[in-house]
Amino acid sequence: MAKKNMLEREFKRKRLILKYLEKRNKIKKELRLLKLNHLKGNSDFLNISNVLKKFQKLPRNSSPTRLRNRCWKTGKPHGFFRHFGLCRNAFRELANNGMLPGVVKSSW
To answer: Which InterPro entries does the entry link to (predicted)?
Structure first.
């Protein structure tokens, strides 16, 4: 089982990501357009740097890449199956007990 403070930290990151998602996407879109215009020769570097400063002012933990996949049952970060949202240990336990529909133990 993962430490409670780690789980709380991840939960806090999820909240921040959802809070700043729209703002982050808006700034990214604006930056993409400015870079595209800069390549065509229509915009200057100052506009791009101003938008980058806006982007850098966002909290670090509002970035989706800082979120770690964790098992919903145990909170473990390693051995994670995305399809089920479980770590390998919890997956094996639930699969052996027949709690995961459609999962059958291999035999040949």
So the answer is: Ribosomal_uS14, Ribosomal_uS14_bac/plastid, Ribosomal_uS14_CS
